[in-house]
Amino acid sequence: MNQEPDPQLERWTHGNLRRLPELSAPPSLLPRVLAALQAEARLPWWRQSWWRWPLAAKVAALAVFLASATALSFLGASIQPAADSLSTALDERLGIISHLWIALAALGGALETLLLSLAGNPWVLAAGAGCTALYLLSIAAGTVLVRYASREAGGLRHEK
């Protein structure tokens, strides 16, 4: 099979594309874009993008953010005992779900370990892909044969 492009097809396509009329924007596009840009420029600085804020406002916002993060960190440490007791109460009431979750996590870990160990061996992956393809092919062939057999059986019933 020739992978090189056909020069005649290339010339024909190029010629037809060059004969197409040039596209133009609708007349209302430029005024709408300019109006949107002017409306954005007229916004107060705190409604604009953070990157367009004054430097003092950026520093103040960063300081407020850091103070809030620090306060939440200390708050989280102070409510930790209450969270632990709530967790214990929920664990007592929903113990079966936590055991199920632990079992599913263990199965997921085993599957991950299996896939990671197989990833280094391409022959095993190729054999698995081949087996999967053969399995799907047998399902497809069985479906075709069942439909063909049921159509044939239906045709015999109509003849009687």
Description:
It is a single chain. The protein has 160 residues and is mainly α. It has helices at 7-19, 29-41, 55-78, 80-93, 95-119, 122-159. The chain is 79% helix and 0% strand. The longest helix has 38 residues, at 122-159. The chain has 6 helices and no strands.
How many beta-strand elements? 0
The unreliable regions are none
The N- to C-terminal Cα distance equals 54 Å
- Largest sheet entry: none
Number of helices: 6
The residue fraction in helices comes out at: over 70%
- Assign an overall shape: flat
Evaluate the radius of gyration: 34 Å
Secondary-structure element order, as H and E? HHHHHH
- Mean pLDDT across all residues, rounded? 84
Secondary structure class reads mainly alpha
The share of residues in extended strands comes to: under 5%
Keywords:
mainly alpha, 160 residues, 79% helix
In short:
The protein is mainly α and 160 residues long. It is built from six helices and no strands.
Helices and strands in order, then pairings?
Layout: H1 7-19, H2 29-41, H3 55-78, H4 80-93, H5 95-119, H6 122-159
